[in-house]
Amino acid sequence: MLKKILIEEMGISIRMISELKKRRAVKVNGGFVKNHDKVFVGDVIEVDLGTDRSEYEPEYKEPEILYEDHDVLVINKEPFTVVHPTRNHPDHTLLNYMEGYFRQAGIQERVRFINRLDRDTSGLLLIAKNKFSHFQMSKEHQFGAMEKIYLALVGGRLDRKQGVIREKMGRRDEESIKREVFEGGQMAITHYRVLKEMQEASLVELKLETGRTHQIRCHMAYLGHPLLGDELYGGRTDKIGRQALHSYILRFKSPRVEGFVEQKAKLPQDMQELLDQL
Questions:
Q1: Residue 233 and residue 157: Cα distance in Å, rounded?
Q2: Is-catalytic flag, 118?
Q3: Is the pLDDT of residue 192 over 90?
Q4: Which helix (H) or strand (E) covers residue 270, if one does?
Q5: Where in the sequence is the signal peptide annotated (predicted)?
Q6: Which of 66, 4, 12, 1 is closest to 40 using CA atoms?
Q7: In the chain, is it the N or the C terminus that has fewer CB atoms within a 10 Å radius of its CB?
Q8: What residues contact 77, with CB distance under 8 A and at least 6 apart?
Q9: pLDDT value for 87
Q10: What are phi and psi of 181, to 5 degrees?
């Protein structure tokens, strides 16, 4: 049955199938058929995903693209870059720059971010280039099939050089942006491993099993080792002007690429200079 193939073999959501039906956007061997019609080995199924342009204005600042295929691209985000336009920051955001890139590249779709990074966090961001890949990659992200590894410079030396933090976290006060560890929060799991120790700081590798807002920042502060530069969570601010956190490795399955894709982004200049000083 066509509908079963669309869902199980092509990974198209029920919602998208309904939209495709309205647009008569699925063809089998060049002709339109119903979702419940039979299909056979050797039939050619074509799906026209259509276009979905954004309302945001494009701006033209070349992003650092590390990887790109038909469905996704990976960029290396600079620190101090806002990802989405806000009331206080309506333009000069990464989304505006990616809108400009999409238009120059002839991609008739809106920009869809798969993972998120704070303004001051640097490193790897994964972007979907169409609705199909956004659905596929969001599922992968949601169910933990995507591997995300960070590097952080934290204050002091950890007693345990590696371990797993399993602590519920969230906001006690809806008016605050700060997260805390408390019983009423959502479960968050962070794996950590100390890579290098200095006199007053440590370089730590962190792997996220869940993706809560401020998870690394909150969990490391809970351990008593807040990120350097992270004023919100009690980190020292005399060494670097932002939280010393970098999205270092992304490993994921792109919808139409065999095997896994793995990308790495070296430490940005400010974190590397701080590491050298320490």
A1: 17
A2: yes
A3: yes
A4: helix 269-277
A5: none
A6: 1
A7: N
A8: 83, 94, 117, 121, 122, 123, 124, 125, 247
A9: 80
A10: -85, 120
Check residue 231 and report its DSSP letter: G
Cβ atoms 263, 74 nearer than 8 A: yes
Helix (H, G, I), strand (E, B) or coil at 85: coil
Q: Which are the contacts of 244, defined by CB distance < 8 A and separation ≥ 6?
A: 152, 153, 154, 227, 228, 229, 230, 235, 271, 274
pLDDT digits (tens, 9 = 90+) for 153-187: 999 999 999 999 999 999 988 888 999 999 999 99
User: 170 has which bridge partners?
Assistant: 180
Of 76, 252, 25, 262, give the one whose Cα is nearest residue 33. 25
Say what the pLDDT of residue 158 is.
Answer: 96
Alpha helices in 13-125 (DSSP H): 14-23, 94-104
* Residue among 274, 243, 235 at smallest CA distance from 156: 235
What's the chain's length in residues? 278
pLDDT tens figures, 219-274? 999 999 999 999 999 999 999 999 999 999 999 999 889 899 999 999 999 999 99
Could you report the per-residue pLDDT of 82-103, keeping only the tens digit for each? 998 888 888 899 999 999 999 9
Mind listing the pLDDT tens digit for each residue in 103-153? 999 998 889 999 989 999 999 999 999 888 888 888 776 666 789 999 999
Of 118, 120, 159, 276, the catalytic one is: 118
**Residue at 230: amino acid letter:** D
In this structure, which amino acid lies at residue 200?
E
According to DSSP, residue 74 is labeled E
